[in-house]
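Supplementary notes for students who missed Thursday's class. We covered one full example, reproduced here. Read the sequence, then the structure, then the short commentary at the end.
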Amino acid sequence: MTAAELASHKAANGSIRDQVLAVLNCYEAQSERDVALMDLSRATNYSYRELEKLAQSLAIEVDVQTDQVEADRRLKDLIQTRRTQLDLNRYLEPWFAQVMLETANAMPTAPEFLFTTLLSAAASRVGTAAQVIIKPSAQYTQPMVFWSAIVANSGSMKTPAQRVILDPLVALEREAYEVYQFEMADYKAAVESQRSKKRDDSGEESTPQLPIRKRYLTKDSTLETLQRIHAENPRGLLYYRDELAGVIKVRNQYRGGHGADEEAELDQWVGSAVIVDRSEKSICLPRSAISRTGAIQWEVLADLMGDHRDANGAWSRWLFCAADTPPRYLRLLQEDQDTGLAEALTHLYQALEKVPQQDYLLSFEAKRLFEVWQHQLVDAQRSEDTLGLQLVYPKIESYTARLALWLHIVNAVLRQERPASVISGETMEKAIELAAYYLWQHRLIHTHNSPDAGLAAIGLKIQKFAERVGEVTASRLKSGIRALRKMATDQIRQLMKTLANTGYGSIRGEGAEMTYVPVPGDRQLQLDLSPPSAAAEIDTVDVALTTMSGNETSAKSKLNSLIDTIDTTSSSSRDEASSELTTIPGSPNELPHNSSTIQHFGQSEIPQDSASNDDIAGRVLFCHCLGVEVGSLSGKGDRLFVQHEYPTRPLLSLMAQAGFEPATLGL
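Structure (token representation):
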């Protein structure tokens, strides 16, 4: 752009700001921008220094606007995820789920905290006695090993929530220790007595047998101690740390900080063999099962995760739960009685350790659902641009199979039945729902804590702070949130507007009087039109579909018939359809679309050549698992539609990710 062209541009636009923006847009190299600013300086009455300063300010504004758009996109999905609640009645036997819910309400705390802790606690009592075989020819199996963690700030009842689940294990540990103490006393007496006796008539001396202490859990152990305890208790045990940071700090503490404790711990997650040869000991376990659980604060987790790249995949192995917790108001004047959770858990733990050793298989229906889900996880991993999250998808795949195994065994024991050798499709469907929930928990943590998350992370912090204290101003946010203290007040107000635009709050006043008012949680669900539970939000295409809008019966029959023909070769057509997506410039939400496709409000047409029916069914399943409410298929021949109940931007974006081609028309 020459000086004459710049002068002509000025005459046409009459704004030096627009001219400098034109320079920034036309030239990427800094040297080219400098030359263009010099030419503009000669063609105008502005000095080069003035134009350079303006260019720097405009560059910052452009970056902020870009971050604002990205933050808006990410916040709409992630804030909704924070509002998702697990319906324990769907995943546990009703009587036991009710006991869990009553206990959580009485504390009060998030029921998800109790459930997440129970995953590890119950798994530790089954341990090496069970594994699920996914593909025998590939020797693809998954053990009963869970690493779970509660993520919440201090005062959020995370420790009490874990204790109500773990206290019955502690009681069993205490009883076992007392038995061991008596047995050791008898052993020592027998050894002492033997020394004072002569050999018996056979000439052989009977040696007392050293008692072995039965273990349930440990709280403070080095890697070597864990290996020794596991060798004495081959079925496995639970490693619990109230403050999860202690798991990191205890590594290599007797090696001057040099050692391979972390690598050995990561190997334990896959349940591999433990083979140790030292001068003082030798251990050989064909399988291992050390489950873990604990709690951690947001900021501590952020410091430990650092840049969140998770190079060795250590953090991706954890099932995080960062559920919203209710206000800690106690109700002391109401009728109060023991919920019976401790007794129920004691019976459950004792029954689980009696489950016989067995390998479990997947039914045809369970294989079909797992295959489609696994393919979509692979596709999502390939499209993920965050390294730390790329490592999460394979671990979520593994946890899907483990969750199916856990649900299968635990619920059978709660029914006082012996677990069948085959895991059903209904159980796999529920496992996929839970896996999707924990996948989004990972995304929430990365967005909240990662240094690369930008304005989206700050937006989440603003929402959480406002929900805790009520309506807030920009100055109140700056004083209450450390990450905002160096941010311009105008930028904070823009973030407040962004949150209001998502439907999770409202703006009152203007300028210095602007106040952000968060919408209460129950009303947020109504504004969001999102279902009240994860069971409805993350539904799958299976015969056990429980929440379908519209013509529920016909929708089920059509979707079930499609699921019967799901093919594993659908990924190529899905990639081809996704590559044809473009964007409508200037549309309100810039929805992805294809100009040859017609979008009716509330339904998306599937182009005739974009996919086969089996691939369509896989995409519908993917939408359900990501939290998109997709309803029945309609139409026939070359005009096939998918009905969806909530035609919002996040829904259409996820449908586009699944391979659909929704376009938009003004109504």
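Commentary. The two ends are 42 Å apart (CA to CA). The domain at 458-525 is CATH 1.10.10.10 (Arc Repressor Mutant, subunit A). If anything here is unclear, bring it to office hours.
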